[in-house]
Amino acid sequence: MEPRPKSFYLLTAFFVLFLIFLYGPTLTIGILSFQGPGGGLTFPMRGVSLHWFRDLFEQQAVGDIWGSFSRSLVLGLMVMVTTVVVSVMGGLAFRHRFAGASLLFYLIITSLVIPSILVSLGVGLIWSQSGLPVHWSTSGFGAQLTWTLPFGLLIMFAVFNRFDRSYEEAARDLGASPWQVIRHVVLPIIAPSLIGVALFGFTLSYDEFARTLLTSGSYNTLPLEIFGMTTNVTTPVLFALGTMTTVFSLLVIGVFLLVVWVMNRRRARHGSDAGQGMV
């Protein structure tokens, strides 16, 4: 076997350093969250216990952890559903040429390059100047859609560019209406991609800070609450909260991946059953 070139080891070392840089802070927070009752915010650890995780479920002297978590969860679900629906509709619309399509596309992409804090400021000003209450479920919802919708639309553009229209033509030849074609042909085929759009929408909303900073009103979402806690909380309860939110995010990703796996298994099973029936 030929010896590996030096570049291989250099790239391997670089990749390992990248992983440490990427996941090291999260692992550090996770480790420090298991300190004993007398633990602090830095190493060395002072004992090992679940004290600070139990403290999360007790009445907090500062912050509204569970209220902000519920708001982030509801807002994430709202953004997720809206992103999926609008992205599918936009993807279907852009399959056909129409006046102003190029301009509309670039306007959609522009929201990704505008600094998030400026978007938050602009949306907050529009709401306040219009006499509307600035609230996480209205102005915050709109501000977050400027972040999630472009990603969802870009995914749908890629999906429909690879979509084989012969399936739709076959369904129409069999007498299916336009709605039946979308419901029974298009949506089942692109379902795994819809799961990806939903995952993008939820996670981007759940973690968003800058676009919610000036549009959430008097009620914080979880990222805003955690940021506020960093200024007045000096115990590892902050690390315990970070560990739990990270675990929750991983569970959400795991659920979405499980759904995609189940869908692919069902599709493969139905395909094999159909093939056996033809034999």
Structure report:
With 279 residues, this protein is mostly helical. The protein has a single domain, classed as MetI-like (MetI-like fold, Orthogonal Bundle). Helices cover 73% and strands 0% of the residues. The protein has 11 helices and no strands. Helix 7 packs antiparallel against helix 8. The model has no long low-confidence stretch (mean pLDDT 88).
Kindly summarize this structure in a few lines.
This protein has 279 residues and is mainly α. Helix content is 73%, strand content 0%.
Approximate shape: globular
Beta percentage is under 5%
Q: What gap, in angstroms, lies between the N and C termini?
A: 48 Å
Helices and strands, in N-to-C order?
A: HHHHHHHHHHH
CATH superfamily: MetI-like
CATH topology: MetI-like fold
CATH architecture: Orthogonal Bundle
Largest sheet: none
Total domains: 1
Kindly report the average pLDDT value: 88
| CATH classification class | Mainly Alpha
The class by helix and strand makeup works out as: mainly alpha
* Total number of strands: 0
Q: Work out the radius of gyration.
A: 24 Å
Question: Secondary-structure blueprint of this entry?
Answer:
Blueprint: H1 6-32, H2 51-56, H3 65-93, H4 101-113, H5 116-129, H6 139-161, H7 166-173, H8 178-207, H9 210-213, H10 222-229, H11 237-278
Helix pairs in contact: 1-11, 3-6, 3-8, 3-10, 4-6, 5-6, 6-8, 7-8, 8-11
